[in-house]
């Protein structure tokens, strides 16, 4: 029986992938209060029910930064997502392509940008983290240009990783050496189907976009350690201007919660912004995205598209964000759960669920077009 909802996919993914991998995606930072606020504040958005309106035809399509989407949904960049199924980001990109939505590939994806673009027959958006080695950033931007990525997404809310207790408890971080390896190995052994599909047949288990920096045969722990040491805590607004000078296409700045930062992003070359607290994975106690959204919209006055993410668990949540002023919504955990549960078919079904739920919610609010 196919899952009926996104939360059904969460349960199935939890039962299939190793604990350290599930918790890495599912968890937030510290006490996870911001993660909870993303869900609660979005659920509190009330919609106007309108009746006796002809809603026999519903149009969910939007045009975003020149790209036509069948609905205002983008698969958000999620690190290590490709470990949830064999060469997972390729499978997810194929599902996004077939559904007519965009996907942003993480810097710390398992599959490289070239593998995803070639495997799906279409390039994703590319998400960029700022690292200390500017040459490495230049090379990533050049790779995105070479693959004709429709947009570059610069994530700016990670000068240093937030404290994620679940990752310590699962030994994904904080447990070096043999003890950590044995703990993770026991979790893999408890998921034999995943171990065969991904662990044995899905290699290389690496971060494809960083392989030349860390080493193609390096263990995953080396990649995680390299990242922890190399996020650039000195980056400022001049770095955004520098990225702008290297990237000719649409530039999206992700990780904005304050109206002043939104204005500065636009002043320094952003073509769009994403109101986001990194899914509650960075500053615990930060404002939820849906609460931050109105003040940012007021400050920008419609000069650029404003996207948002955090807490989406249904097509109804997509409409809640759009009704609050977002041009589109990034969806992160749901597509990774669906990938972990059923691979490409799961992501395709998850997107179909979101679209059906969005259409139903639009009909019940008496709206036939998102505008």
Description:
The protein is an alpha/beta fold and 371 residues long. It has one domain (6-364): Aldolase class I (TIM Barrel). Helix content is 48%, strand content 11%. The protein contains 16 helices and ten strands. An eight-stranded parallel barrel has the order 3-4-5-6-7-8-9-10, surrounded by six helices. Helix 15 (315-323) links the parallel strand 9 and strand 10 (329-331). It is globular, with a radius of gyration of 20 Å. The chain starts with 5 loop residues before the first helix and ends in a 7-residue tail after the last helix. The model has no long low-confidence stretch (mean pLDDT 94).
**What structural category arises from helix and sheet content?**
alpha/beta
Secondary-structure element series: HHHEEEHEHEHEHHHHHHEHEHEHEH
**Number of strand elements:** 10
Query: What is the fold-level CATH name, i.e. the topology?
Result: TIM Barrel
Order of strands across the biggest sheet? 3-4-5-6-7-8-9-10
Largest sheet: 8 strands, parallel, barrel
Q: Number of DSSP helices?
A: 16
Sequence stretches where pLDDT stays below 50 over 5 or more residues:
none
Shape: globular
């Amino acid at each position: 029986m196919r899952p009926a909802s996104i939360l059904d996919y969460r349960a199935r993914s939890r039962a299939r992938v190793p604990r350290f991998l599930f918790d890495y995606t599912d968890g937030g930072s510290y006490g996870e209060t911001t993660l909870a606020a993303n869900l609660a504040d979005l659920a509190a958005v009330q919609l106007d029910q309108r009746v006796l309106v002809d809603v026999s035809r519903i149009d969910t399509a939007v045009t975003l930064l020149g790209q036509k989407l069948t609905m205002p949904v983008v698969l958000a960049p999620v690190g290590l997502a490709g470990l949830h199924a064999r060469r997972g980001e390729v499978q997810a990109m194929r599902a996004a392509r077939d559904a007519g939505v965009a996907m942003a590939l993480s810097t710390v994806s398992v599959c490289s940008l070239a593998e995803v673009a070639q495997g799906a027959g279409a390039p994703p958006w590319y998400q960029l983290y700022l690292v200390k080695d500017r040459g490495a950033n230049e090379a990533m931007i050049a790779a995105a240009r070479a693959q004709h990525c429709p947009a570059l997404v610069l994530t700016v809310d990670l000068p240093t990783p937030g404290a994620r207790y679940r990752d310590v408890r699962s030994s994904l971080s904080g447990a070096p050496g043999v003890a950590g390896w044995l703990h993770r190995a026991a979790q893999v052994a408890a998921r034999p189907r995943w171990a065969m599909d991904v662990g044995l047949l899905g290699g290389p288990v690496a971060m494809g976009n960083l392989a030349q920096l860390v080493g193609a045969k390096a263990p995953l722990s080396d990649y995680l350690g390299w990242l922890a040491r190399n996020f650039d805590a000195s980056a400022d607004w001049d770095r955004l201007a520098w990225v702008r000078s290297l990237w000719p296409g649409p530039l999206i700045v992700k990780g904005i919660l304050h109206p002043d930062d939104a204005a500065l992003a636009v002043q320094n070359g952003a073509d769009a912004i994403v109101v986001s607290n990194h899914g509650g994975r960075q500053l615990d106690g930060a404002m939820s995205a849906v609460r931050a959204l109105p003040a940012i919209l007021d400050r920008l006055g419609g000069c650029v598209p404003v996207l948002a993410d955090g807490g989406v668990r249904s097509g109804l949540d997509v409409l809640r964000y759009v009704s609050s002023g977002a041009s589109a919504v990034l969806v992160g955990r749901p597509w990774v759960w669906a990938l972990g549960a059923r691979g490409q078919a799961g992501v395709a079904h998850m997107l179909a669920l979101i679209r059906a739920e969005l259409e139903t919610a639009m009909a019940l609010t008496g709206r036939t077009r998102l505008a």
